[in-house]
Predict the structure.
Amino acid sequence: MVNRVVSGAHYGLKDWLVQRLSAVVMTAYVLLIGSYTLISETITYTYASWKSLFEQGWMRTATLFFVLSILLHAWVGVRDVFMDYVKNTGMRLTLQVLTVLWLVGCGGWALQILWRI
Amino acid sequence: MPELTIKKRRPIWYNLSPVNLPIPGLVSIFHRISGLLLVLGMVWLLFLLDMSLRSEPGFHDSREYFTHPVSKLGLLILLWSFLHHFVAGIRYLLLDIHVGIELVNARRSGFAVFAISLVATVIFGTKIW
């Protein structure tokens, strides 16, 4: 029997699950949108058709879920890498804060692109 | 009892050099490297998406952009990163549901990850180039 203080502890199961669920969402998006754009390749030929793809509601919603999944997935992944290789706490915290800023910034930009069209 | 503890103290020899890693270990380290490359590269992809959706001239600029060899190379690196991360990720999801966890199968699927992602990189890469 291992004595663990459960109160306030964080064992990372939720992060593990978020990592997997976001991976499944992104896989579905990539397979659907990827095959769609590969089949109807002409969609990338003109500005009008390229724009019309992103104007559609379903595409916007799907891309929104995709972007959110990237942010969550990348956060858990990058955090794991830093936890494994960056031993200095202050350094690790700095890198993690920069990662959050980077990801939130990218996410904000993506939303701006999607809703500006 | 002291004898036992002395006997237990065996030399620790973890050789974690990437060169000597078994195939599943190589899949893993490249999964991390490709993931980091994708996180860094996503701002560039966003920049291109922004440009291509901004306006008609912007769309043509973004197409023009890829005639430059340096941007082609950058896109090729991100293409490989994505394909390796994607294929290796599917392998990990299968391992999570206990598909192919035996050593022989894990090595085979590790090899398959490299084979599939590299062949796909060549196929899509020639399309870009």
